[in-house]
Design brief:
Blueprint lengths: L5 H40 L7 E4 L2 E5 L11 E8 L5 E10 L10 E6 L5 E6 L8 E2 L4 E8 L7 E9 L11 E3 L3 E5 L13 E7 L4 E11 L10 E6 L8 E5 L8 E2 L4 E7 L8 E10 L16 E2 L5 H9 L8 H4 L6 E12 L2 E13 L6 E3 L2 E8 L12
Parallel strand pairs: 1-3, 10-12
Antiparallel strand pairs: 2-9, 3-8, 4-7, 4-9, 5-6, 5-8, 11-18, 12-17, 13-16, 13-18, 14-15, 14-17, 19-23, 20-21, 21-23, 22-23
Length: about 400
């Protein structure tokens, strides 16, 4: 009978069990690490978004409350972004799904340049994802509003700090304060402008001056109502349909545009489909030597406009001869616009006619400020020249 010391027996037994325990422990630890890694990755991929807040830093992510779940009803959330001094904020929507409405009256996201009384860069709803939005300074405000009814998944957006007036495929725009200058679509003139871009140029002149804008080259996706890609020009510092001078697309440069006051906002928007060459425009400040209110009519040929025009410009319009050649769409007289419609109201003031028209068809939009309420489109026009066609209610 052999004898083995107790110590050796324990030692031998320990060595026979240890490799198995070590393997089990290794497998368990590996699974634990994988589990914890996945949990951390999930938490990184799906952050929790709160309703509003003050946000600082060079970059970050903003989302609606509960994203990617349904956002809550009857909510108003305000986010205030601040990036370092000397830089601007660039905001890009990665996803948007809010109750759809043509005028975004119910659920919407507003984006402003600045925190207080800033320029509104746009209002968005539905599922259309706009291009990148750029502030004019180092602050931006985002406001989301929801009503009591239909909701969606909300939105997800990223912001970053950039150098002012930086150009590239992703964004454009800025604040223009020099006495003269130019603005252009991204990629001009090397290639077409990119899809999904929003650019806003805010032009500011001294208090006693107005702004003239001319387009040297112009090629934006054509549509009778400029619904897809377009340039819109507004009096003042914000995107406001009541102050819109005109909305332009196609391949014909718009007529020169004059501001009423010392500020003008030019917005360019491209959707996510067709693109074109783009444009380059020039602006310059002009002394405010003549009134920008409606002037007495001339005794020459027809002209009409939707906005107050300086005296010399109005007289020139009224002196042009009417060429009834070409198609209605391309060259019907020398008018800036051609429409058919029903006159809702017509008032004579100072020899000019102020009329509200319910539109039947638009052949040439020019600088009309067309507004839509439901299925009915309307516009307000001012007829300046005596020999313009008579306007009577109901015609």
């Amino acid at each position: 009978m052999s004898f083995m010391p107790p110590g050796e027996n324990r030692r031998s037994g320990a060595w026979s069990v240890h490799p198995i325990m070590l393997r089990i422990c290794s497998i368990f630890c590996a699974w634990s690490v994988l589990f914890l890694t996945e949990v951390c990755a999930q938490s990184q991929r799906r952050p929790t978004f709160t309703c509003g807040g003050n946000i600082t830093g060079d970059s970050g992510v903003i989302g609606s409350p509960g994203y990617p779940g349904v956002y809550p009803p009857n909510t108003k959330c305000v986010w205030r972004i601040t990036v370092p001094e000397g830089k601007v904020v660039v905001l890009s929507f990665r996803f948007i799904d809010l109750e759809s409405d043509n005028l975004c009256r119910y659920d919407y996201v507003d984006v402003y340049s600045g925190h207080v009384s800033g320029q509104r860069l746009g209002r968005f709803c539905g599922t259309f994802r706009p291009g990148a939005l750029v502030s004019t300074g180092n602050k931006m405000l985002i406001q989301m509003v929801s009503d009591a009814n239909t909701a969606g998944s909300g939105f997800l957006a990223v912001y970053s700090a950039a150098q002012p007036h930086e150009r590239g495929d992703q964004y454009c725009g800025g604040r223009l304060v020099k006495p003269s200058g130019s603005f252009k679509t991204p990629n001009w003139p090397e290639k077409d402008y990119p899809a999904g871009v929003t650019c806003s140029w805010h032009i500011v002149a001294p208090k006693n001056q107005i702004i003239e804008v001319k387009f040297e080259k112009f090629d934006v996706e054509r549509d009778n109502y400029c619904r897809y890609d377009y340039v819109a020009i507004f009096n003042g510092a914000e995107i406001n349909d009541a102050k819109r001078i005109g909305k332009y697309c196609g391949d014909s440069p718009p007529a020169p545009v004059f501001s009423e006051g010392n500020q003008l906002l030019i917005q360019f928007l491209s959707d996510l489909s067709l693109t074109a060459d783009g444009f380059i425009g020039h602006y310059k400040f002009r002394p405010k030597k003549f009134p920008t209110t409606t002037v007495p009519p001339s005794t020459s040929t027809p002209a009409a406009t939707t906005r107050p025009i300086p005296l010399k410009y109005s007289v020139a319009l009224c002196q042009q001869k009417c060429k009834r050649s070409g198609t209605v769409e391309s060259n019907y007289c020398t008018s800036d616009f051609v429409i058919t419609g029903t006159v809702i109201t017509a008032v004579v003031r100072g020899g000019s006619v102020y009329a509200t028209i319910s539109i039947i068809n638009v052949y040439k939009e020019g600088n009309l400020a067309i507004q839509q309420a439901g299925k009915t489109m309307s516009t307000k026009i001012i007829v300046l020249c005596k020999k313009c066609p008579s306007i009577r209610r109901g015609e």
